[in-house]
Write a structure and sequence with these properties.
homodimer, 549 residues, alpha/beta, six-stranded mixed sheet, 23 helices, 43% helix, globular
Chain lengths: 549, 549
């Protein structure tokens, strides 16, 4: 069932743009944008399940992810986003059940991770980009549909006899709401836990005044006044954010080259060693001087190294997750001139008051979070020719382990201001802060320091620093050994070790909620022959093994 | 495989005392106690797996749990506990693998939950009882053996060529360390995450100076000086805690009556409706006046209602978890005079400066946490004759939902000082605080208030308050509906909704770590025909499906 061949013949591609959207309509009337869900039921990602009643699959969600990202870069004039539906009396009925029922376990888990990242990106846009969002629920809103609304700053529900919000996963499908629903209900909207319990076990959901008094939505509005009230609230959201100066920056296509052997982008390569189940992921420093002022950076647009390289990295991470399921170890490598990376970091830091530069930094942050959350073993190899400096040093800090060559004239590490807070992890700490929980003073490294292997080892910045004699064997053995271990045990181990320190809503979603959901996605009561997910839509009723664990 | 019949023919009983210990020796030389692990390999809980090399099963761990609890009540003169081994050059090799390999999923999960609660009880004794602990590791210390050490305040490791601490679960068994190991390594001992990664994927573990410099142990000591150094450090721990006055209080046997239909204790009953998969758990208020001063309470000893009733409740919860796996819904009921419960609470609160009274309160707290962590749906039924007052009101607050009869002369709820902080949940909040995350002022209820159903509903203290006409049907339907849902989905849902708000090491262990571990315990790579856990000790090597999720 987890045979990668069964995952799908055609690899998933994540690049898109509004002109190619199939399932969403993006309408901009600055300062408000509207994203209207209008799922084309005959155009799912893969044949086999019609996307009825505005239900979604990955092809729908990757357009949403693209739209939210593009709004931040291309439409600084937009300060409120209304997420609605183009279909009458249906907002969104959530993830398509037949898609879930027919997917491999690995695909289901990765699908949910991606949709979670998309919802968090919506919240990130609200927190850091002055792009507030409003869910305008014009009718049926179930499961993932409501979870999308939960990620918005405000939820308006049409007040009629039938429109309700619901999380029917537990009673109807014997699985959990997979996109942060339970966590956001009690931790973001702070719904009382017993009411959340009733709500989450009630197939038909909650509507009208009860939905408001339970804090599930902010307001209900009769259909006749719905559009006007949505517009009014959108204007109110606009007023929460400051205006941004200057035109947007269009995100040009990356146009990478994809083969079974890997991916080639301008600054990022992925090379797959399929037999070893190892991927080599290489980031290259800028090859020429990069602009140093905010104005010049905006001029450079999406060709700016810091933006393009991290967009490429993002694309490669998604390719790895969805199209290379058997790769167990990702070797993180860098190539090029560390000074150029440090100059980029310095320019970004000094220009961070500019909205575009700020967006570039927040984008880098999100991509690095995607790396932290990628369920593959990450080994940083700091060898000759590498440039783990500043923002690229974060790759080594994101790795489960790092190996640094200790040799005369060997590689160095370097810090920049960006290691000190601009690129936090999901737990809210810097990667250095997470690393040095026991000795927080070690995390406060001055920017601009350079470390050779011996000093880096002493400072606790790398895991191992073999000399030239041991280097090749030690790195090779580490990779081989890692690739030989159980992929499941490694996923669980890494999920527990990577995020020490404080928990946030984000880490709760990926750690606690996702882990429980992965468990349930394996259980016969959901996916067995008589499981509820398997039998959904069929006349036969699910049969449960009643043992409680 | 999850057929309860296969879980074991003989039900597990949790009551024991030092005179009946099989696997531990408790030696007391006040102010130091020593608990020496000396597992009798031919006396496992169930036949089929010898407990070689000081490996443990539930029968070993329940003695440990008993010992730690008894030390707090019976031996106030003890201020440091040395946990060591009576076997030469073997400390503890962890949970018995063959026991795990031959257990049902449900048993494995419940076993790990219990061992986790025991480790947390050790830490609770250190934090609140002045009973500090020291792990004296005299030799091999693997897996659960090291996890036991991690729960101690201090870890001493003998320094020789072979003695190491290890978490070999991932490389050897393709499962996670099940008793908080990963969490405690990075969150309690704050081992650097990359070193934790190396350590947790290294079958042979880490010894000597490296173990110290990686923060895995506090000190290594040559064998010749080991005993002396352990004694020295134990004395140092003694000096951290204040002396307690007066003699200990012996915990008399509860001697409950156990039948297939339930459990009968003096103050607590469990009645099983097997066909409905529902249990009725009833706590009864004191039947006569309880002592009101600390001295009188100590005089009453383990017959004190607050101590005995909660010991009985603890016993019943463990019986439910291990011996009644198919019960899905637990109906929480109380009977008796609320005034008596409130008087008990007032006496406990005013006497809390006394060590014994303080122990009673902390014991109540631990039992209520055990209730929170019990993976069954909890419905509180507040009907005529009930006494959900003060400490017993916590039962209703621990429930996933509560139903209160709204009728003239109907039941009332009442608050006491104990609802305001003495009985916190694992997340560090009171149950009222968790309930009212959105409106913290509602959680600050004055003690001594009484609420009838209408007022309680208005104050958000109960979920539903049907009148006499609807009462029976509504409660019956709620129970039936709940019992009809997938037990797995409910377990996951409740684990996510019960612990809103802050995360602590404790909630991380039960939420994040346990959920991942449950997932892995289901995966063919661990428990399939060719899984590593299944094949452990056999000549055949595990075969993995390499798909990463």
């Amino acid at each position: 069932m987890d045979n990668p061949a069964a995952v799908g013949e055609a690899p998933v591609r994540f690049e898109t743009d509004p002109s190619r959207y199939v399932h969403w309509r993006l309408e901009i009337e600055a300062p408000v944008a509207r994203l209207l869900l209008d799922v084309q039921e005959d155009r799912p990602l893969r044949p086999g399940y019609p996307l009825k009643t505005n239900s979604y699959d990955l092809s729908v969600d990757l357009e949403l992810a693209d739209a939210v990202n593009r709004l931040r870069f291309e439409h600084p004039e937009v300060r409120a986003l209304v997420i609605g539906s183009a279909k009458d009396r249906i907002f969104c009925s959530g993830a398509n059940i037949y898609m879930l029922g027919s997917s491999t376990h690995s695909f289901k888990v990765n699908f949910c991770k991606f949709t979670n990242e998309t919802r968090l990106a919506l919240e990130d846009a609200s927190a850091h980009s002055g792009l507030k969002s409003l869910a305008a629920i014009n009718g049926a809103c179930a499961g993932g549909g409501y979870e999308l609304a939960l990620a918005c700053d405000e939820i308006l529900l049409v007040d009629d006899a039938s429109s309700a919000v619901s999380l029917p996963e537990v009673p109807l499908l014997a699985v959990l709401p997979g996109t942060g629903g339970l966590t956001r209900v009690v931790d973001k909207r702070k719904v009382r836990r017993d009411l959340a319990d009733v709500f989450s076990s009630l197939g038909e959901g909650v509507k009208g005044r009860r939905a408001v008094s339970w804090r599930l939505v902010d307001e209900t509005v009769p259909l006749s006044r719905f559009a006007a009230r949505v517009a009014e609230r959108a204007q109110a959201l606009v007023s929460l954010a400051a205006e941004k100066a200057g035109p947007g920056v269009v995100l040009a296509p990356l146009g990478g080259g994809y083969t079974p052997e890997g991916v080639e982008h301008r600054h990022v390569s992925l090379r797959i060693d399929a037999a070893a189940r190892v991927a080599h992921l290489t980031l290259r420093a800028p090859e020429a001087e990069e602009p140093s002022t905010a104005a010049a950076m905006r001029e450079r647009g999406s060709d700016l190294w810091a933006l393009r390289a991290f967009r490429e990295l993002d694309d490669v991470l998604l390719d790895l997750r969805f199209n290379r399921p058997e790769v167990g170890v990702v070797v993180l490598e860098t190539r090029g001139d560390a000074a150029r990376v440090l100059a980029v970091d310095a320019a970004l830091w000094s220009g961070r008051g500019d909205w575009f530069v700020s967006e570039v930094l927040h984008h880098m942050k999100r991509v690095l979070k995607r790396l932290d959350l990628t369920a593959r073993s990450l080994l940083a190899v700091i060898d000759r020719g590498s440039c783990f400096a500043g923002s690229l040093f974060e790759l080594a800090l994101a790795a489960d382990r790092s190996y640094m060559l200790d040799a005369a004239g060997g590689p160095t590490l370097a810090t920049s201001q960006l290691n000190l807070g601009a690129l936090p992890m999901s737990n809210g700490l810097t990667r250095l802060g997470t690393r040095f929980l026991a000795e927080p003073q070690r995390a406060a490294i001055p920017p601009g320091e350079t470390y050779d292997a011996a000093v880096a080892l002493e400072a606790g910045l790398v895991t191992f620093a073999p000399d030239e004699i041991d280097w090749e064997d030690e790195v090779r053995l580490a990779i081989e050994e890692r690739a030989s271990l159980s992929p499941d045990a490694l996923t669980g181990m890494e999920a527990n070790l990577r995020f020490a320190g404080p928990e946030t809503m984000e880490t709760k979603i990926f750690g606690r909620l996702s882990a429980w959901q992965n468990w349930i996605f394996q259980r016969p009561n959901a996916v067995g022959e008589k499981g509820a997910l398997t039998l959904y839509g069929k006349p036969e009723r699910a049969r449960f093994n009643w043992t409680r664990t």
